[in-house]
Amino acid sequence: MAYSFPEEVLEHVFSFLSSDKDRNAVSLVCKSWYEIERWCRRRIFVGNCYAVSPGEAAFRGFQPRAGGLGRLRVPVDRGDVGAYPLLEEIKLKRMVVTDECLELISKSFKNFKVLVLSSCEGFTTDGLASIAANCRHLRELDLRESEVEDLSGHWLSHFPDNCTSLVSLNMSCLGSEVSFSALERLVARSPNLRTLRLNRAVPLEKLANLIRRAPQLVELGTGAYSAEIRSDILLNLTEAFSACKQLKGLSGFWDVVPAYLPAMYSVCSGITSLNLSYATIQSFDLVKLVTQCRNLQRLWVLDYIEDSGLEALASSCKDLQELRVFPSDPFGAEPNVSLTEQGLVSVSEGCPKLQSVLYFCRQMSNAALISIAKNRPKMVRFRLCIIEPRAPDYLTLEPLDAGFGAIVENCKELRRLSLSGLLTDRVFKYIGTHAKKLEMLSIAFAGDSDLGLHHVLSGCESLRKLEIRDCPFGDKALLANAAKLETMRSLWMSSCSVSYGACKLLGQKMPTLNVEVIDERGPPDSRPDSCPVERLYVYRMVAGRRVDMPGFVWTMDDEDSGLRFS
Amino acid sequence: MEVQLELALSSGSGKGSDPNQDCDQRKKRSFEEAFMGVKKKDVDDLHETLPLLIWDGNEEKKQQFDGELLEQKHIPKLAISNNREDNFVVVGWPPVKSWRRQFCHQISHRECTTNYVNVENNGGGGGGGRGSNSMYVKVKMEGVGITRKLNLSVHRSYHSLTAKLIAMFGICEENVEKYKLTYQDKEGHWLLARDVPWETFIHSVQRLKLQKMATTFYS
């Protein structure tokens, strides 16, 4: 190209780009832009490591988990830490991260500030100790839902005395007890601390001491919320909470003793986000707390809240935008609580801003779904899990096609939908016809034939992610809509009726797609072509085929052999 | 550790061998059917269509997010259950994250260890079905000859317990008011259930009795 700016100019221009999406686009323009971009890149977000050859993925020590997903938006040089000298942030999702890797990060990047490991694994508290000890300017350490091998709680004591930069600490997934005095001192010397999520092992009796040192907290995750009932503890806790004038979010609440909930009442009016999804307390006590939070926007709660509790929520919390109700006994044969479709209907009636729902329940009706759809046409995310697979409308015993059909027809802004219950191809026709903004769809135990899949693939213009399990969808719909798959981020099908032959054909026809067959029964070509595969994963390729697949994953590529092993 | 999932089917699959099992679902009409004329579709045929997979506890680690079905990549082994009572189990359903699964398991475990009640049965010894998750107590309704057994560990409120009792004994609406729920505590005293908070009740209940309002309180 004739045009070329001096590198410094481009670098300066790129430094104004903050969005990952823009950065990614820039790095793909040409080699020189790629090089320049990475020099001034400050953040890496690895969400789907399938999109880039994992051998190159990030640094030595970052191994995409075998079969794990991640979104790597920017190709990273192999093993070369010097490639990103200014790196300040690393956010990884569902990847294997080793202690060596964490140590490498902590020692290599002088400006390193943010580490978010979401659902990762492979490291221990020793790795955390390295981060604590060496990252002088650490602002954020967030281990959300990662599986950390908990060798000891001493890692926290590795934060040096002159580390005062901490803004956010989330250690809620850790099991063992950290040194409380070290924690207390860390909190005391972190004036910018806004988010503190403790683990279960931090006892309630000591919580007041911590909070007292951080009255500027915006988000607090408690440890176990139980102690023997003593008035001095209660008083202490009440006083400590009342000093937290900026608190907006609360979580934690393992092992709740209801007698201690009133300690928080003074902050309830400011609370916008409440995560009670570990609080195993009765509806009565949940309601007392929740109805104090008049400005609540987000509530995550167990089904102990029951229909009556949700009704109370609907009357009190008019700003509610997001509701998630989790099952307390998902595998029990019988309902253990009185939570039905009615609870959700009440909330949809009473909360005008409700736009995001995740709801586990044991019965549903078309009437209820139609009601919800009409009440809340601005719904954006609707995920319903009726616990029994293929459960029909419990009143009429019909499929729930009409109900979900009403959802997609009325809720024109719907971006995410998860289906459950008894569903025929008809519901997919409704979805294909109406769900034009739908980006992510999850389907399980639904549909009658390929037509169902065809409706979705041919009709949902905005579809990016589709995941399907145990549906009678097969070759015809898949092959007829092969081109659609190029416009999507990924398709996942497990226990469906897609044959090995069709997978091969897809791989041959579509060179820009990675078509992977995941089958633990052994190499797929040891079985007839007509044999259905256990799992199929199709995604857009950004940097060539994977080469590091585990033994039960095969890629369908465009060579004549049709099969390449890892 | 082998974790076995069971379908939430009303026919009570998978617990057939347990003599304490509440098998009224199969044999008796529920309250709704008896008094509201709702017909329950026979859901037994659903058994045929579901995959037969046993879920090894280790696979749990790779389970999916709630709502996100399929981001687990680790495939559970296709295996036949050793347990002959087992019917079909569905792997990875409902789609609950592994740590939440463990949490739920902890809840029911804790209930069992603190509330375990030894229920008499005919030489069987020990209580509930799979041993660890149940808390069966005897329930007698005044005027009804046969004493029933009820699994208290699945209930979290008086509301759900009452609903269960109504269904179990087929009490029609106008008669519900005529009975009081009483329980025998660890000291052998009979008390009115609703007089105490659920937590207190569940920690001390030994047996239940539905008593007609007109009778004297202590039997």
Automatic annotation (TrEMBL), chain A:
Pfam families cross-referenced by the UniProt entry: F-box_5, LRR_6
Domain of life the protein comes from: Eukaryota
CDD domains, sorted: F-box_AtTIR1-like
SMART domains: FBOX, LRR_CC
Domain F-box: 5-46
SUPFAM superfamilies assigned: F-box domain, RNI-like
Name recorded for this polypeptide: F-box domain-containing protein
Species for this entry: Rehmannia glutinosa
UniProtKB/TrEMBL annotation, chain B:
Pfam family, one: AUX_IAA
Stretches for region Disordered: 1-28
Xref: SUPFAM superfamilies: CAD & PB1 domains
PROSITE patterns associated with the record: PB1
Keywords noted in UniProt: Auxin signaling pathway, Nucleus, Repressor, Transcription, Transcription regulation
Residues in coiled coil: none
Subcellular location: Nucleus
Origin superkingdom: Eukaryota
Repeat as UniProt keyword: no
Signal peptide (from-to): none
Role: Aux/IAA proteins are short-lived transcriptional factors that function as repressors of early auxin response genes at low auxin concentrations.
Family statement drawn from the similarity comment of this UniProt entry: Belongs to the Aux/IAA family.
Protein name as catalogued: Auxin-responsive protein
